[in-house]
Design goal:
heterodimer, A: about 110 residues, mainly beta, five-stranded antiparallel beta sheet, about 0% helix, B: about 110 residues, 11 strands, globular
């Protein structure tokens, strides 16, 4: 049973526009959420995170929104740049579990010129 | 510069061979992890460690084993590689909540 779901396997956005990547989770015991970016043949790179006690966190072009009642989070990238083209993974952490993370299956973002 | 390293980056090997995938970090993190990832799939945790001499199996059953004799070193060993072990193996470390990943090892077993 997949506890973290990214239902869109791919997304194409024009350069300069907003990219919105979505993630749903099923377990209300998750207390921390993270987004990672991954290029082919490389390890994931940490992007941005949010605690379950917040509903928004912003870092430059990246903003993560958390809707606890809907068990939904989203990553907004604005403006999107060609270098943002990669696979984006959503991850969630249970309280007090040695920081073990549960990952979604990823969304491949393609930013076109 | 603090970082996390994995060697080899790519490995092609025959069935039945013993292999060790190396992972080292210079950040002094106590917690380290091994994940397995296939294309289009999520990362699956196969092993983790809270610190020296501590290792635990992850959520995905794996025939590999790990050891943690030094804080900075967390190698993964497969005693007898099989084609079903073909995958990307990712090592990570953590101090608080974020995990930081190495570049990964792409393993192909023929």
């Amino acid at each position: 049973d997949q506890q973290v779901k990214q239902n869109s396997p791919s997304l194409s956005v024009q350069e300069g526009r907003i990219s919105i990547l979505n993630c749903d989770y099923t377990n209300s015991m998750f207390d921390y959420f993270l987004w990672y970016k991954k290029y082919p043949a490389e390890g994931p790179t940490f992007l941005i995170s949010i605690s379950s006690i917040k509903d928004k966190n912003e870092d430059g072009r990246f903003t993560v929104f958390l809707n606890k009642s809907a068990k939904h989070l989203s990553l907004h990238i604005v403006p999107s740049q060609p270098g943002d083209s990669a696979v984006y993974f959503c991850a969630a952490r249970f309280t007090g579990t040695a920081s073990k993370l549960t990952f979604g299956t990823g969304t491949r973002l393609q930013v076109t010129l | 510069e603090a970082d996390i390293y994995q060697t080899p980056r790519y490995l092609v090997i025959g069935t039945g061979k013993k292999i060790t995938l190396e992972c080292s970090q210079t950040m002094g993190h106590d917690k380290m992890y091994w994940y397995q990832q296939d294309p289009g799939m999520e990362l699956h945790l196969i092993h983790y460690s809270y610190g020296v001499n501590s290792t635990e199996k992850g959520d995905l059953s794996s025939e590999s084993t790990v050891s943690r004799i030094r804080t900075e070193h967390f190698p993964l060993t497969l005693e007898s590689a099989r084609p079903s072990h073909t995958s990307q193996y990712l090592c990570a470390s953590s101090e608080f909540r974020e995990q930081f990943f190495g570049p990964g090892t792409r393993l192909t077993v023929l």
